[in-house]
Design brief:
Number of helices: 16
CATH architecture of the largest domain: 3-Layer(aba) Sandwich
Number of strands: 8
Radius of gyration: 20 Å
Helix content: 40-55%
Strand content: 5-15%
Largest sheet: 8 strands, mixed
CATH class of the largest domain: Alpha Beta
Structural class: alpha/beta
Low-confidence stretches: none
Number of domains: 2
Length: about 325
């Protein structure tokens, strides 16, 4: 019996909970989050900073959420109030958990996954996510002044846009590299050594390599080979998990994925609701991975197939997938890494 694992935001829900909470709590929080998210993409994918992984945005923003008054309770209440499911995914998950081991492996904060559990009844013991305690730190007036200066400096930078063709730092324009170097100093020297730097030092977002580690743990605990694993993700935080399953000859699927997810997955799915996911999973459970090579689906509402190896065809697919991603999840969320 295979095991099934899904990212949460994208394949199951439409939110970007951290982005939305940031936008709600912090003045100009949406733009602030986007600046930090682009910085995260740079550190994880281009600079490949040691001991840094995709998704660590979720710890970088925590001192600033705390600065502007965020608490555990406010995050919990916000998550319950704003959670939006991808249509049909509640029914699909309810069906799947009766016939196979199903897991959610999410970079999102735990209160958001607790809100999901309350909404659809998914077992919390099968959820891996980012533990956070916003009440663990108190910020003094002196520290608040420093954090405010850092916050204002980051907002004062021009919009950070990482060229899709960039592979190494030297591929970036000099002025952009200067901004990214300055942000690295601000976070890992200035903020790191504050009391609120606790969040940067101690919080471990479940993204990048951490997602891959979770899949290895699930495989060991169930005594099910990774070659029998199924993982569905959509963003840069999923690349290690998708690559792990792909290399193990399991089933790795990008659902409405961006370029990071598509370049790491073997299969792709596009859709405006969860129906395509349900059909693909049931085909896999009935006919194995070999059946997916024969399974083809394409109409105006959903599509499934192999990620093409040809670069021109892949570029076309990336454009189509990212366009649907933005239409389904909204432009601001869809543009995030």
């Amino acid at each position: 019996m295979p095991f099934l694992a899904f990212d949460c935001e994208g394949p199951i829900t439409l939110n970007d909970n951290a982005f939305e909470f940031c936008s709600s709590v912090i003045p100009q929080g949406g733009r602030f989050f986007k600046q930090v998210s682009r910085f995260d993409d740079y550190l994880a994918d281009i600079k490949k900073r040691e001991n840094y992984k995709a998704g660590d945005t979720l710890k970088l923003i925590l001192p600033f959420l705390k600065l502007f008054g965020a608490t555990n309770r406010s995050l919990e209440e916000f998550s319950e109030r704003t959670l939006v499911l991808l249509p049909k995914m509640d029914e699909i998950l309810s069906k799947l958990i009766k016939i196979a081991p199903v897991y959610i492996v999410s970079t999102s904060y735990k209160p958001y996954l607790v809100a999901l559990r309350k909404r659809i009844g998914f077992p919390l013991e099968n959820v891996y996510c980012t533990e956070v305690d916003l009440d663990a730190v108190k910020i003094s007036p002196a520290e608040a002044k420093i954090l405010t200066e850092v916050y204002e400096k980051i907002l004062g930078f021009p919009d950070i846009e990482i060229p899709a063709t960039a592979k190494i730092p030297e591929d970036l324009p000099g002025n952009l590299r200067e901004i990214l170097d300055e942000m690295e100093y601000l976070f890992f020297e200035k903020v790191w050594n504050l009391d609120s730097g606790f969040f940067l030092r101690e919080v471990n977002p479940i993204g990048g390599k951490e997602k891959a580690k979770v899949l290895e743990e699930i495989s060991r605990e169930l005594n099910i080979s990774l070659s029998e694993g199924f993982y569905c993700g959509d963003s840069i935080t999923d690349t290690d998990a998708l690559s792990l399953i792909k290399e193990a000859r399991g089933v790795s699927i990008s659902f409405n994925g961006n370029r990071y997810a598509l370049r790491s997955a073997e299969f792709y799915a596009l859709g405006y609701d969860g129906e395509v996911i349900g059909e693909v999973v049931l085909s896999f459970l009935d006919n194995g991975k070999d059946g997916l090579y024969r399974f083809r689906l394409k109409d105006e509402r959903k599509e499934f197939g192999l990620v093409p190896g040809d670069e021109e065809e892949l570029s076309t697919l990336i454009s189509r997938s990212e366009n649907i991603r933005k239409r389904v999840r909204g432009l601001l969320i869809g543009e995030l890494g």
